[in-house]
Inverse folding.
C-alpha cells in the first residue's frame, strides 16, 4: 500500500482567520493524509523550510487577506530556489479570478475559492499528487 | 423602543490610506449613516507599522492603515469628534489607537467628557476566535483594564470595551456558544476592573457588547433576549450592581459575514436584510449590514450604499420600530429564549469550574468547542443537511460579474513614504524618552494610558509602542486546536 500523502497546511502573513485552514487540515487527515498545520503568522521562508523538513508532497496556503499577490510569488520563488518543484502548491481563500490565473501561471497547481467543498479538494489531491512509494 | 431614537446605522469601514477612508466616511455620513466605525488594516491590528517587513503586501488591504497620530488626524479630517460617535475595531493595540483618538479630539478642542463612541478592546475573544493577540493573556488583560479604568475617569460617555461574540460566531461557533463565551468574557472584564478598586456602578453602564446576526432568524432574536436577561441577572446577583444602567446590556450587531456567498452574490442582499431584521427585532442599539461583495473584497461604494439602504428601509418603511421587544410573549420565542439561556448558563458554569475564562483559554476549551462546531457545520453543508442557496442548491453555471473595490500596493508605498518623512521630522529624542517611560510603566502596576498618550503625542508609532510592550510582556504563541 502506498504511503499517505503528506500535506503542509499553512497560514502565511498576518491574518489569523484560521477557520478554513483548520477544517481543511482536519478533513485531509480524516481522508488518510498526513497533515502538518503550520500555525499562524508564517513567513514564506518559514513555510518552505517546514515543507522541506517535513518532506511534504503538498503545500496548501490559506490566504483571505488580499495579500496573495505579495505572498504566493515569494513562496514560489523559494520553491524554485531550493529545487522543490516536485512539491505541489495549492492556494485556498479569497482570490479573485484574474489573480488565480496569474498564480497558476506562476506555478500554483490549483486555487480553491470560497464555496469549494472538502470533497472537491480531497479528490483533487488524491488524483493529482503522485503518491510516494 | 426605536420610536424616540432608531438604532445607530454604523457601517464598519476602512481601506487603503487614511485619505481614502476619510472620503468614504464623509460619503457614508452624507448618505445617512449615523455613526462611524473604523476598520484597521492587518498591520495596524497586529501592532506593526506600514514599513515593517511583515506588512509587505498587507497595507490597507483589510482596513485603513494607521501607523501614527498623523494618520489618525487625516482619518478624522473634517469630522467633529464632539458630535459624531466613533467605534474603533482594534484589540491588542487598542490603548494606542484610543490614545490617538483622544489626542485628535484634544486637537479639535473637543473635551473628552463629551466624547461618545466605542473601543472594541476585547482581547479574550482574540485568544478564543480571531487570533489578533500579541502578548500573553494576563498582561493583555492588564492593558484592557487600564483602558476601562482610564476611560471611566476621563471619558465617561465613551464605551471602553465592546465584549464580542461576533468573531466567535464567525469562527464557526453555535449561537449558544457565542452567547455563553461572550457573557463569560464579560464577567472576566468586570472582575478585573473591580480589582482596580472601582465601584461596579461606576463602570458597568459603559460596558457594551457586540453580537452576530446569523441566519436562524428566531434563534438570533432569542439569543439577544437571553443575553439581556442573563446580563441583568449577573450584574445584580453576581456583582451587586444597584443602578439600572448597570444592568442594561447594550449591543451592536453585525450581520453574519460568514453566511454570505461567493456564488450568486446578489443572494447576499436578501440574507443581510433578513439578518438585519433579526437584529432590529432583537433590540440592537447599533447595526452594521454587510455588503453583497463580502466574499470577494472590501465593500465597493455601490455595495455599501445598498447595505445602508437596507437599514433605512427597515427603519423607515416596515413599521417594526413601533414596539419594544415586539416578539415578547410569543410562545415560540419565549420557549426558545429560555432554551438558549439554559444552555448558555451550562457553558458558563463549566468555565467557572475551570477557574474562569483565562484558564479555559489556556486549556483550549472554547477553541475546541468552536473547532468542533465549525467542522460539524461544514460536514452538514457537504451532506446537504444545511443549504446555502446558490452554493449547494440551485447553483448556476454562469458566474455573475460584480464591480469590486480594488486596493493596490500604492497604499503601502504611500504609507511607507509618510512614515519615512515622519521619522525624520519628529523629535526622536522625545520619542525615545516617551518609550522608555512607557516601558517602565508597563513593568510597574501604573495605568499605562497617560504614558501611551505621551508617546502618541510625540508621534511614536503603533509599531514602536506595541514593540515596547512586547519587550516587557513577551509574545503569545497559541497551541493550535484543530
Amino acid at each position: 500500500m502506498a504511503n499517505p500523502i503528506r500535506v503542509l497546511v499553512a497560514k502565511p502573513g498576518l491574518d489569523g482567520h484560521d477557520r478554513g485552514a483548520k477544517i481543511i487540515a482536519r478533513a485531509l487527515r480524516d481522508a488518510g493524509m498526513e497533515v502538518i498545520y503550520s500555525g499562524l503568522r508564517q513567513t514564506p521562508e518559514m513555510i518552505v523550510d517546514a515543507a522541506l523538513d517535513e518532506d511534504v508532497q503538498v503545500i496548501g496556503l490559506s490566504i483571505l487577506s488580499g495579500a496573495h499577490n505579495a505572498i504566493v510569488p515569494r513562496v514560489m520563488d523559494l520553491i524554485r530556489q531550493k529545487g522543490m518543484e516536485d512539491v505541489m502548491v495549492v492556494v485556498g481563500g479569497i482570490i479573485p479570478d484574474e489573480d488565480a490565473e496569474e498564480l497558476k501561471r506562476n506555478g500554483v497547481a490549483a486555487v480553491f475559492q470560497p464555496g469549494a467543498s472538502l470533497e472537491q479538494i480531497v479528490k483533487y489531491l488524491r488524483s493529482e499528487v503522485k503518491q510516494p512509494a | 423602543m426605536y420610536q424616540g431614537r432608531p438604532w445607530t446605522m454604523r457601517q464598519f469601514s476602512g481601506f487603503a490610506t487614511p485619505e481614502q477612508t476619510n472620503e468614504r466616511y464623509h460619503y457614508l455620513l452624507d448618505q445617512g449613516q449615523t455613526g462611524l466605525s473604523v476598520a484597521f488594516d492587518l498591520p495596524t491590528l497586529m501592532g506593526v507599522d506600514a514599513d515593517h517587513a511583515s506588512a509587505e503586501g498587507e497595507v490597507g488591504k483589510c482596513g485603513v492603515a494607521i501607523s501614527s497620530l498623523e494618520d489618525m488626524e487625516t482619518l478624522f479630517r473634517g469630522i467633529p469628534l464632539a458630535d459624531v460617535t466613533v467605534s474603533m475595531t482594534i484589540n491588542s493595540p487598542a490603548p494606542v489607537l484610543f490614545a490617538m483618538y483622544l489626542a485628535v479630539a484634544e486637537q479639535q478642542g473637543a473635551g473628552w467628557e463629551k466624547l461618545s463612541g466605542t473601543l472594541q478592546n476585547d482581547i479574550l475573544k482574540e485568544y478564543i476566535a480571531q487570533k489578533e493577540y500579541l502578548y500573553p493573556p494576563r498582561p493583555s488583560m492588564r492593558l484592557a483594564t487600564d483602558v476601562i479604568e482610564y476611560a471611566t475617569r476621563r471619558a465617561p460617555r465613551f464605551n471602553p470595551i465592546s465584549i464580542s461574540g461576533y468573531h466567535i460566531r464567525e469562527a464557526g461557533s453555535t449561537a449558544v456558544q457565542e452567547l455563553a463565551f461572550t457573557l463569560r468574557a464579560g464577567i472576566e472584564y468586570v472582575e478585573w476592573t473591580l480589582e482596580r478598586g472601582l465601584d461596579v456602578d461606576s463602570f458597568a453602564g459603559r460596558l457594551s457588547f457586540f453580537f452576530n446576526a446569523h441566519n436562524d432568524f428566531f434563534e438570533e432574536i432569542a439569543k439577544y433576549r437571553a443575553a439581556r436577561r442573563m446580563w441583568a441577572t449577573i450584574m445584580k446577583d453576581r456583582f451587586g450592581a444597584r443602578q439600572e444602567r448597570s444592568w442594561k446590556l447594550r449591543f451592536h450587531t453585525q450581520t453574519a459575514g460568514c453566511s454570505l456567498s461567493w456564488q450568486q452574490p446578489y443572494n447576499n442582499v436578501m440574507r443581510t436584510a433578513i439578518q438585519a431584521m433579526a437584529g432590529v427585532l432583537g433590540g440592537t442599539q447599533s447595526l452594521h449590514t454587510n455588503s453583497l461583495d463580502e466574499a470577494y473584497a472590501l465593500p465597493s461604494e455601490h455595495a455599501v450604499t445598498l447595505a445602508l439602504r437596507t437599514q433605512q428601509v427597515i427603519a423607515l418603511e416596515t413599521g417594526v420600530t413601533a414596539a419594544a421587544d415586539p416578539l415578547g410573549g410569543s410562545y415560540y420565542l419565549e420557549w426558545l429564549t429560555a432554551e438558549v439561556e439554559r444552555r448558555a448558563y451550562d457553558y458558563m458554569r463549566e468555565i467557572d469550574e475551570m477557574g474562569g475564562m483565562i484558564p479555559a483559554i489556556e486549556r483550549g476549551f472554547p477553541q475546541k468547542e468552536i473547532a468542533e462546531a465549525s467542522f460539524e457545520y461544514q460536514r452538514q453543508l457537504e451532506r446537504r443537511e444545511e443549504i446555502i442557496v446558490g452554493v449547494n442548491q440551485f447553483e448556476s453555471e454562469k458566474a455573475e460579474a460584480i464591480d469590486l473595490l480594488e486596493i493596490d500596493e500604492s497604499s503601502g508605498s504611500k504609507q511607507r513614504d509618510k512614515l519615512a518623512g515622519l521619522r525624520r521630522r519628529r523629535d526622536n529624542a522625545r520619542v525615545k524618552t516617551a518609550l522608555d517611560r512607557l516601558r517602565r510603566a508597563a513593568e510597574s502596576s501604573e495605568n499605562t494610558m497617560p504614558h501611551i498618550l505621551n508617546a502618541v503625542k510625540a508621534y511614536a508609532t503603533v509599531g514602536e509602542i506595541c514593540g515596547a510592550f512586547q519587550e516587557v510582556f513577551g509574545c503569545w504563541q497559541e497551541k493550535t486546536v484543530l
